[in-house]
Design brief:
The structure is a homodimer of 363-residue chains. The first copy, chain A, has 363 residues and is an alpha/beta fold. The first copy, chain A, has helices at residues 13-26, 37-41, 45-54, 65-71, 91-97, 106-114, 138-142, 146-149, 168-184, 195-198, 333-339, 344-352, and strands spanning 8-12, 31-35, 59-62, 79-82, 100-103, 124-126, 154-156, 189-194, 208-211, 232-244, 249-250, 256-257, 262-267, 284-288, 294-298, 308-311, 323-327, 358-362.
Chain lengths: 363, 363
């Protein structure tokens, strides 16, 4: 027996490359850009972007200029686009690192025109097609001069329901996007789809696709089996094993009462590591027995900041220092997202950034 | 009008000191230790621990040894206790930074005895009193020799329901703790309560209290008005203002349909910054009008990774670059936790660690 105390996050860079290349091959006529915002969904933007760069990617999207500044030194001659656009607080990052803003509004465009970058770089323009998030409306586009319209490298929009191909919003947004492109940007390149949109059909591909979630193994086609490879494994050591008596309580608020004598494992991971507290009394961890058979052990009681408690009555011969798996090939990001009533994007964003993990990259 | 794109997190160190001193004064006979685990609940362990050290705190609790190693260089001669204990993966941190483990099990104690630290430092022992999380049971304590029992500096346990003073678990755990102390640790100092426990009554104070959540302004007495000061302010710029027509949809999944023409603000913050996606269609942000009157504007549609969309129909004269407040004195950590069906501890743990914020410490 060896005692361990620290949770471990393993990130498989080979599988990230494989996912990227699979997606790229699905869109043979579009530039396959990579979305590495939010620290590459928490997995580490520097390492992930370098990996994708080495796989041939030369176009990257971040949300904030600060994120672009972090990866720029590692991505020579790549295009780094900033989705939240440009402002007084982010201008220095654009100048120092040659970042390219995605301009979302007339007000932001007016600001951009006052900066030294105007007419030196070609920004992207984002247009509104139905998401009602960022983007110029048709009324606002009509106020731009022909020279201004011609100053953009790409026209960009974003789909709201692309993970449900039959949703009426997809065709509605596609039609709006084509109308805007034809009317205002006939000679400008176009980009509409993120990972989910590319699976609808090739009408949604245009000149560039923005590959994000699917690179990280998330199933962006929830209406069918995931064709991406899981890229992460999270495991945490068992700190202690206890047998609690019938009628005893477990965890904060005494929300779990044992209906019978129950063997429990206290596992060294909690919401302080980004494991959602909504998994209290309803999540699961995977623990392997000596035959390597997986057992899906219920989380009992509330998830606390540093620990979860699991019912391990179904497994023999466990001991302190053995590991419980929070996410792996047998219990994926999408499975844990399902159990926590959210999407895999949020799960990994909250987990990956925590510095308490021992983070290993498998190359 | 000035355009901004980046969310801002302001942390008031003066109020953190004030909260610490208020709590300390409530426990005149106990050593007032500070809990700075999980990067001081996401607020920055180095800065927070230095502030508390300067206010006289000399005893600190972290969860993981790695966290202790980060703050140790700034806390000369302080005691830094590690709640998750010691293992093969964390031993080097203990040796290099003179950290003190909290030993939770016979197995961990057996490991500790093999390390060069045994008989050089006095660890804390954690005992089980009813939470059924970490800690020695009475059966396990009975197997320790008198010398072993005497080797600990403190006997520690943790309450499960201290935020509800009338809960039967409090008296039950107190009784168990006193029995264990009297039987096994008559001459050892004792610590039972975190922030919430100290408010039950002074019987719960013992020799050391572990002040955490309340220092950070969280209401650990939800049965009455918070007596702590709010210490954080989170605000994010409005990137764009839009008027959407009746029957248009907002955000991913088209989950929000406008029942009338609606003025919206797209705010530059999202679950990538730790703002829970569970606030979709039910959270609020605070926006101030020109008279500085707060308006609680509903989040409409889903929270996305980088943006939330708010209904601002009730406010005139807003413009791009104005700020929406996510957490402040008018809408506290506890308010947003309530809206997201969780506790303030989890809210701030997920938000504070995100590097996308401009983080300012107010001294």
């Amino acid at each position: 027996m060896t005692i361990y105390t620290t949770p471990i996050l393993n990130i498989n860079l080979k599988k990230i490359t494989k996912n990227y290349l699979t997606l790229k091959n699905l869109c043979p006529n579009a530039t396959p850009s990579a979305v590495i915002k939010d620290d590459a969904y928490g997995l580490g933007a520097i390492k992930i972007s370098q990996t994708l760069y080495n796989a041939g990617c030369k176009d990257f999207f971040v949300a904030h200029a600060k994120e672009g500044a972090i990866v720029a030194p590692y991505l020579k001659d790549a295009n780094i686009y900033v989705l939240q656009g440009i402002g007084k607080d982010s201008l220095p990052y654009f100048i120092e690192h040659n970042l390219i803003p995605v301009i979302c509004s007339p007000e932001m465009f007016a600001y951009f025109k006052q900066t030294p970058l105007y007419q030196k770089i070609s920004p992207i323009i984002q247009v509104e097609t139905g998401l009602n998030r960022l983007g110029f409306t048709i009324n606002e586009l009509e106020k731009l001069s022909q020279n201004e319209l011609n100053s953009f490298s790409y026209v960009l929009s974003h789909l709201s329901c692309a993970d449900a191909p039959a949703h009426f919003m997809n065709e509605y947004q596609l039609k709006n996007f084509i109308q805007i492109k034809n009317k205002f940007f006939p000679n400008t390149k176009a980009t509409l789809s993120a990972s989910d949109g590319i699976f609808i059909n090739s009408n949604y591909h245009f000149d560039m696709v923005r590959l994000g979630a699917a690179i990280y193994g998330i199933n962006t086609t929830p209406y069918r089996t995931n064709t991406m490879q899981n890229v992460i494994e999270i495991k945490a050591p068992i700190l202690q094993i206890k047998t609690i008596k019938k009628d005893e309580y477990v965890g904060y608020g005494a929300t779990y009462k044992a209906l019978k004598e129950t063997k429990t494992a206290i596992v060294s991971i909690g919401y302080g590591d980004g494991i959602s507290r909504s998994l209290s009394n309803r999540g699961k961890v995977v623990i392997y027995d000596s035959n390597n058979t997986p057992h899906f052990c219920p989380i009992i009681g509330r998830v606390s900041m540093d620990n979860i408690i699991c019912d391990i009555s179904c497994i023999n011969n466990l001991q302190c220092g053995d590991f419980a798996y929070i996410i792996n090939n047998d219990y994926t990001l999408d499975d844990i997202a399902h159990a926590s009533d959210t999407i895999a994007y949020e799960v990994i964003s909250n987990i990956g950034k925590n510095t308490r993990f021992i983070k290993n990259y498998i190359e």
